[in-house]
């Protein structure tokens, strides 16, 4: 099955065409990437006028690659599924409107996702479309972990609760980690660390998300490239009283904080190099980021009733041996032992980087959100349209 994976932003459209193969009951081979690309500057000078025009460019590229073959289904990355969506769904007008109603919860992302859904529906009205939500995997989080200790109307009127994000990545990585350990996905108890430009940790018990560090928005939790993560909420009140407006505070915490604020760069390679050449700000940044991560790992180890594995993924988790080593060094109390030789090996394969006597295994498992979306899309379409 040929699945076009779409990640639609407000002024960009990222796509990847994958051949998911046919269902055979067993594990499928890795779906081949047949085409991929990024169209930017939608609605700006020199770029396509709108998402429909951007899709025209994608279509032309697909024709070039596919010749007479056609796309069988489109899978969309949708950031917010609210409380309604706990799994990928086949899209119709009602579903698109339901996603649109969630716009206030993800004002930068969901409106763009809706534009993508509508652009496909008007270009290819018969095309099966599937929405795959970043929040869906976290719908199993119990109330004691999703509820904030604030008056209930904040929840009932505004939907203020923990939702969690990066769910597609956490679920995919937890599944691959279980495979690496030789157990079924439902047997996996562990902590998954998605360390990219955005950073989140998820507590996984029995293969399900039972807690995650991002909350009502992706700002909560760990130190990220440009986001602060956790801080005393009174800081916002203080800043507001000092005359800083909502947009300014939003910008400060989402785009001017994190590694960028601490070390002057949001690129982990730059920060590690600076720290190694003696830059004190960079050293402090790595200390803050790894310390905060270790605290979450300790907490989630307790939450899952004893993690069997701690799994590193995404740009930093997969590639930065130096950062993994700094995190592992803070986990001595859990009996975690890193194998420095294994940790230094660069690879695209899922692998173990702890020593055999480590009390908890340390794994590196590359994420692949497009693959997860393509496979989820194919599964939903096959179930809806049995052949
Ligand atoms: P992502 O959002 O998953 O693309 O991850 C982006 C982050 O990964 C950035 O902070 C990059 O600096 C970091 N990253 C990518 N490659 C490496 C590498 N080889 N070593 C250290 N960090 C890396």
TrEMBL record:
Q: Which residues bind ATP?
A: 14, 194-198, 267-269, 315-319
> Could you give a single Gene Ontology term from the biological process aspect?
acetate metabolic process
Q: Sorted alphabetically, which SUPFAM superfamilies does this protein's record hold?
A: Actin-like ATPase domain
> Where does it live in the cell?
Cytoplasm
Fetch the Pfam families from UniProt.
Acetate_kinase
Q: Which GO terms describe its molecular function?
A: acetate kinase activity; ATP binding; magnesium ion binding
Q: Offer a single GO CC term for the protein.
A: cytoplasm
Q: Which UniProt keywords apply?
A: ATP-binding, Cytoplasm, Kinase, Magnesium, Metal-binding, Nucleotide-binding, Transferase
What is catalysed by this protein?
A: acetate + ATP = acetyl phosphate + ADP
Needed cofactors, names only, are: Mg(2+); Mn(2+)
| Top-level EC class | transferase
Q: Where is the active site?
A: 134 (proton donor/acceptor)
Q: Where does Mg(2+) bind?
A: 7, 369
Q: What is its EC number?
A: 2.7.2.1
The record's comment on protein family reads:
Belongs to the acetokinase family.
Protein name in the entry: Acetate kinase
């Amino acid at each position: 099955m040929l699945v076009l994976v779409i990640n639609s932003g407000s002024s960009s459209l990222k796509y990847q065409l994958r051949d998911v193969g046919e269902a055979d009951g067993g594990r499928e081979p890795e779906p081949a990437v047949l085409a991929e690309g990024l169209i930017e500057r939608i609605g700006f000078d020199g770029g396509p006028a709108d998402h429909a025009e951007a899709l025209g460019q994608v279509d032309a590229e697909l024709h070039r690659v596919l010749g007479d073959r056609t796309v069988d289904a489109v899978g969309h990355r949708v950031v917010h599924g609210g409380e309604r969506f706990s799994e990928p769904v086949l899209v119709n007008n009602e579903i698109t409107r339901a996603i649109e109603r969630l716009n206030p919860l993800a004002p930068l992302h969901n409106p763009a996702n809706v534009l993508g859904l509508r652009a496909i529906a008007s270009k290819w009205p018969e095309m099966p479309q599937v929405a795959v939500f970043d929040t869906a995997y976290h719908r199993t989080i119990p109330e004691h972990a999703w509820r904030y200790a604030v008056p209930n109307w904040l929840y009932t009127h505004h939907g203020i609760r923990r939702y969690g994000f990066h769910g597609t990545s956490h679920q995919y990585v937890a599944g691959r980690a279980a495979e690496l350990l030789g157990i079924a996905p439902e047997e996996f108890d562990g902590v998954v660390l998605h360390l990219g430009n955005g950073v989140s940790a998820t507590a996984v018990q029995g293969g399900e998300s039972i807690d995650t560090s991002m909350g009502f928005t992706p700002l909560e939790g760990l130190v990220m490239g440009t986001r602060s993560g956790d801080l005393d909420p009174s800081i916002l009140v203080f800043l507001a009283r000092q005359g800083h407006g909502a947009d300014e505070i939003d910008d400060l915490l989402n785009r001017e904080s994190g590694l960028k604020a601490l070390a002057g760069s949001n690129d982990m390679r730059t920060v590690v190099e600076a720290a190694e050449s003696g830059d004190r700000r960079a050293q402090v940044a790595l200390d803050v980021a790894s310390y905060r991560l270790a605290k979450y790992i300790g907490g989630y180890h307790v939450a899952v009733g004893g993690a069997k594995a701690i799994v590193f993924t995404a740009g930093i988790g997969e590639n930065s041996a130096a950062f993994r080593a700094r995190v592992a060094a803070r986990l001595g109390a859990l009996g975690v032992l890193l194998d420095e030789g294994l940790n230094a090996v660069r690879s695209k394969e899922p692998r173990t980087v702890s020593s055999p006597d480590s009390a908890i295994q340390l794994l590196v498992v590359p994420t692949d959100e497009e693959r997860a979306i393509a496979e989820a899309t194919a599964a939903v379409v096959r179930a809806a349209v049995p052949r």
